[in-house]
Amino acid sequence: MPISTPVHIFIVEDNAWYGELLEYRLSQNPDHHIRRFTTVQACLDNLGDKPDLITLDFSLPDGQGDQVLRLIKERHPEVAVIVISGQEDVRTAISLLHQGAYDYLVKDDETLDRLWNSVGNVQKQLQLRRENEQLRAQIGQKYDPQRAILGESQQIKHLFALIDKAGRANISVSLSGETGTGKELVAKAIHFRSERRDRPFVAVNVAAIPGELLESELFGHEKGAFTGAVNRRIGRFEEANKGTIFLDEISELDLSLQAKLLRVLQEREVVRVGSNAPIAFDARLMVATHRNLEQEVREGRFREDLYYRLLGLPIMLPPLRERGADILLLANSFLQDFCRQNSMVACTLSDQAQALLLQYNFPGNVRELKAVMELAAVLAEGEVIQPQDLSLRGERPQGVALADSGADESLRHQTAAIVQRYLQAYNGNILQVAARLQIGKSTIYRMLQNKEITLS
Ligand SMILES: Nc1ncnc2c1ncn2[C@@H]1O[C@H](COP(=O)(O)OP(=O)(O)OP(=O)(O)O)[C@@H](O)[C@H]1O
Description:
The protein has helices spanning 16-26, 40-45, 65-75, 90-98, 111-142, 145-148, 154-168, 183-193, 211-219, 236-239, 255-267, 293-298, 304-311, 326-341, 351-359, 365-379, 411-425, 430-437, 441-449, and strands spanning 7-12, 32-37, 53-57, 59-60, 63-64, 80-85, 103-106, 173-176, 201-205, 220-221, 233-234, 244-248, 269-271, 278-280, 284-289, 313-316, 348-349, 384-385. By secondary structure, it is of the alpha/beta class. The strands form six sheets. Strands 2-1-3-6-7 form a five-stranded parallel beta sheet, with helices on both faces. A five-stranded parallel beta sheet has the order 9-12-15-8-16. The longest helix is centred in the first third of the chain and has 32 residues, at 111-142. The chain is elongated and about 85 Å long. The two termini are 48 Å apart. The model is unreliable at 395-408 (pLDDT under 50). The site of adenosine-5'-triphosphate has 18 residues, from α8 and α16. Pfam families: AAA_lid_14 (PF25601), Response_reg (PF00072), Sigma54_activat (PF00158).
């Protein structure tokens, strides 16, 4: 891949002829933007222009290489400085490299070629750094709450204000709300608005991990700590160091692990299973639950002392049915995304379909709305989605075979219907369907086993 990252270079050289020679050689790459100075002072006066690279003659009339290097690095630590000296002196070279010089070259027949290579390496590093910055900016944008979290209702505006506050302060956050209301999305948004945004965001769904494995998942284990621990493993808390750890479904933590978590939070250190050595950690904790934690405390299932430690800034996510016109805003956005990703003509919602969505109570909240809209886009005959294309609770889209409905039909059957439809669309490819619907493939296997769906 040809390199085309511009490099802004200062040449600081009091010997006019040598300076010209350096400029001539380096200007053979059109990406090099060169300025030439003959004194230290002139170089320092222009440092505000943030050059990427400086070639610095070791002996200048108004300063020696090591002092000048220090002055430059104090004011502009990121610049790469290549020191060019008239004499070879290994000790000076080592000392300069220790002080942060990028390279040390001696003036001889090969200086120009070595300088060319050295500048080429700086350019490659710059390119990588800029790509990294771009990627980081994209990630930041992705989790910019104003972009990733859709909604214009009062409740969502209030939520944005809380996300902003939580992003600026470094306190724990506890999120509550029904399933699918966006608790994890909000946790990520807070992380990506906080000073920890360049560090990991580690999410653990406490309810999804078997109890006997949870301690080692959270805190890690030493080799041989228990049968099957063939290697040492660091836990999710250590993984999240300096970043954020998000514990979803925190109310499912059993009482013995609640005690261990409390200790970790009090001591700010974790101990791997099978070890006695505490490891300091510094991660921001966010927790979420769809249960009422206060009630869990009252009923003795959740430790009161841990509850108060975790509470921090409590954020309650409103159910989708209470967000008014946001339902349609979200529905249209999910439709557009789905049609674009699948190269389909963009669908719209008929007036009757809109009315139906506004009346529905969405027990699965935003996650359910997303699945309903994606399925509707697949089922719709034309480009306009009609009420019969919406697989809402108690409403069955035409052409979707549902399993027998008992008293507790609905969500489970709706899920089965959606999975069945996707299995048809993806020719029975379970992995693809699991990825597309963001559900575990074991869920699909279980549905097959229970004959809720078929592979035919
Ligand atoms: N306001 C929103 N705007 C856009 N997408 C949203 C919004 N709220 C939620 N979603 C989407 O809905 C889905 C469910 O969100 P999320 O997983 O954050 O919910 P949750 O409350 O953590 O669910 P659970 O309690 O089941 O873990 C995700 O695909 C998420 O991107």
